[in-house]
Design a protein that fits this description.
The chain contains 16 helices and 18 strands. The strands form four sheets. An eight-stranded antiparallel beta sheet has the order 12-7-11-10-14-17-13-18, sandwiched between helices. Strands 1, 2, 3, 4, 5 and 6 form a six-stranded antiparallel beta sheet that branches. Strands 8-9 form a two-stranded antiparallel ribbon. The longest helix has 16 residues. It is globular, with a radius of gyration of 22 Å. The two termini are 32 Å apart.
Length: 465
C-alpha cells in the first residue's frame, strides 16, 4: 500500500466519526474489523461497528527525523514496505505480517530487538485516539492527555482506538547476519542472555537482535542477529530462503551461521507461523511443494484454526480415536531472566509442550530513564524473557475450564512474571486489577468513556465481551 498522505487520512477519520454518529444512542462501540490476531473467544457483535476501512496505510515517512505517521489499522507488512526501501524500520517489528501498529500498541507486541528497544508502544511519540465519547484526542507523554498515553498500551480497545501514531524508526542494513548458539540448558541460556543484554555484544561482535528456541530441556538455541552494512564483505554471500522448501526454525538446529535479507529476517517466523504450520501438513516435503507460496503466511494458518474452532473437526477426530479432550494453550508470558530455568522446568513437568520461543525484553531507557506503563507494569532495570508456546494439550473432560492455563497464570505470578492478554485469561477480578492496575484503568476510562460505551479490559480479555 502506498503512502496515503494527510488528506486521505483526514477523510478516513471523517468516515470514522460518521459511523460513530450513526450508532444508536448508548449502543456499544466496536470496530468493524473482519480479521484479528487474537486467540481468545468473544461474543459476536450484532450491532454495526466503526468504519476503519480508510485507516490502513502509512500517512508519511520523515527520513530526516526518522519517524513515520501511521494509521492505526496499518499492518506491519505495509509499514515495512514503506520504510525498508529507505533503510529504515520500526524499532520493534512483531513477528507476524498482519499485526497492525494500533493492535501492537494497544495489545502489546515483541520481537528480537526488544532486549534493547522494549515493546512497540515505547517508540511511540504521540498518537491520536478515538475515544468512547466519539472524540479524537492527541495524546503525548507531556500534554493534558498523558494519562491516556501511558495507560493505552495493553488496554485492548477499552480506552479507544488509535487512528494515527507517530513512531520512531531506526536504520537497518540490507542483510542480517545470524549466529546460532547451541546451549545445553536454560541456566546457561539465561546467563548468555543476561550478558548480551548488558553489553549488546557477544565475543566482541555487535548484537542487534536476540531471540531463541527451547527445543528440549537439554537443547536450546539463541540466535544473535547483526545488521550488515551495505559495504561489508560479510553481506556479499547468498542469503538463505526460508519461504520455499526450507523451514526457518529447523535451521537453528542445523546451522551455526546464516545470512538473510533484512526483509526475510523480519518475516522469518511468519512463513510457517513459527512451527505451527506443521499442524496443517505444510512442512511435509510433498505437501510443501504443492502448497502455494502465497498461502505460506500466518494469517492463512490463523483462518484455518478459526475454521476448525467453528466446525470442531479436530475434536471430532479425537473423540473417534478415543483421545482425551484438548485444552488450547496459546500464550506469551514474561519471566524474569533469573527465573527462566525454574519456569521451563515447571513447564516441562506440568504442561509438556515444546518448542518454546524465547525473546528477551527490557523496558527501553532514554537518557538512562525507563518510562513506566501502568497497564503492563514491568520493572525498570529488569531483564525478562518472553516465553511463547502455542498448541494443545490432551487433558480430558476438564479442558473447557482451562486447568493448564490457570496453572500457568498461578505459576507466573509466583515467579514475578506477566502475561500478555491476546489469548484466554482466567484471572478473578481482584487478581486482574492487582496485576494490570485496574484502579488506574477505571479512572482513565471514566475520563475518556464517560458513558461506558466501550467494554472494560476485564470484560474483553476474561469475559470475552
Amino acid at each position: 500500500m502506498p503512502v496515503v498522505g494527510w488528506a486521505a487520512h483526514e477523510r478516513a477519520v471523517a468516515r470514522l466519526r460518521a459511523s460513530y454518529a450513526a450508532l444508536p444512542a448508548g449502543a456499544p462501540v466496536r470496530l468493524a474489523k473482519p480479521t484479528s490476531n487474537l486467540f481468545r473467544p468473544r461474543e459476536s457483535a450484532a450491532a454495526p461497528g466503526l468504519d476503519v476501512s480508510g485507516l490502513r496505510g502509512v500517512v508519511c515517512v520523515d527520513l530526516v527525523a526518522r519517524t513515520a505517521d501511521v494509521q492505526g489499522m496499518c499492518t506491519y507488512e505495509d509499514l515495512v514496505d514503506a520504510t525498508l526501501p529507505h533503510g529504515l524500520v520500526p524499532l520493534v517489528v512483531p513477528q507476524l505480517r498482519t499485526i497492525t501498529l494500533g493492535g501492537a500498541v494497544t495489545g502489546l507486541g515483541i520481537e528480537s530487538t526488544s532486549f534493547r528497544n522494549g515493546l512497540p508502544h515505547e517508540s511511540v511519540l504521540e498518537m491520536d485516539v478515538f475515544t468512547g465519547a466519539g472524540e479524537v484526542v492527541t495524546a503525548r507523554p507531556d500534554n493534558e492527555h498523558a494519562d491516556l498515553f501511558a495507560t493505552f498500551p495493553n488496554s485492548y480497545g477499552s480506552l479507544g482506538y488509535a487512528t494515527r501514531l507517530r513512531i520512531e524508526l531506526e536504520p537497518i542494513g540490507p542483510r542480517v547476519a545470524l549466529r546460532h548458539l547451541r546451549l545445553p540448558d536454560a541456566r546457561e541460556a539465561a546467563a548468555v542472555i543476561a550478558e548480551i543484554v548488558a553489553t549488546r555484544t557477544w565475543q566482541g561482535e555487535q548484537v542487534d537482535g536476540l531471540d531463541g528456541v527451547a527445543f528440549a530441556p537439554d537443547e536450546l538455541s539463541l540466535t544473535l542477529a547483526r545488521w550488515v552494512r551495505p559495504d561489508e564483505p560479510a553481506g556479499s554471500g547468498t542469503p538463505s530462503d526460508y519461504t520455499g522448501q526450507q523451514v526457518y526454525y529447523r535451521s537453528l538446529q542445523q546451522r551455526t551461521t546464516d545470512l538473510l535479507t533484512a526483509y526475510d529476517y523480519l518475516w522469518r517466523w511468519d512463513t510457517d507461523w513459527f512451527w505451527c504450520s506443521r499442524a496443517f501438513g505444510a512442512q511435509h516435503p510433498v505437501a510443501r511443494r504443492v502448497w502455494p507460496r502465497r498461502w505460506r503466511r500466518s494469517d492463512v494458518y490463523h483462518r484455518l484454526v478459526s475454521l476448525d474452532r467453528r466446525v470442531g473437526l479436530v475434536d471430532r477426530l479425537d473423540r473417534r480415536a478415543g483421545r482425551p479432550l484438548r485444552e488450547r494453550v496459546v500464550q506469551d508470558v514474561e519471566v524474569p531472566v533469573d527465573r527462566l530455568a525454574e519456569f521451563l522446568t515447571w513447564f516441562d513437568a506440568e504442561i509438556g509442550m515444546r518448542p518454546v520461543w524465547l525473546c528477551p525484553l527490557r523496558l527501553r531507557e532514554v537518557d538512562g530513564v525507563a518510562r513506566r506503563w501502568p497497564s503492563y507494569p514491568l520493572t525498570p532495570g529488569t531483564t525478562y524473557v518472553n516465553a511463547g508456546f502455542w498448541g494443545t494439550v490432551h487433558v480430558g473432560p476438564d479442558a473447557p475450564e482451562g486447568p493448564r492455563n490457570r496453572a500457568i497464570e498461578a505459576r507466573l505470578s509466583a515467579l514475578g512474571g506477566h502475561k500478555s492478554l491476546y489469548s484466554e485469561a482466567y484471572y478473578d477480578r481482584d487478581t486482574f486489577d492487582r496485576l494490570y492496575d485496574g484502579a488506574n484503568l477505571a479512572a482513565v476510562k471514566k475520563r475518556y468513556d464517560p458513558d461506558d460505551r466501550l467494554n472494560s479490559l476485564y470484560d474483553k480479555v476474561v469475559r470475552g465481551r
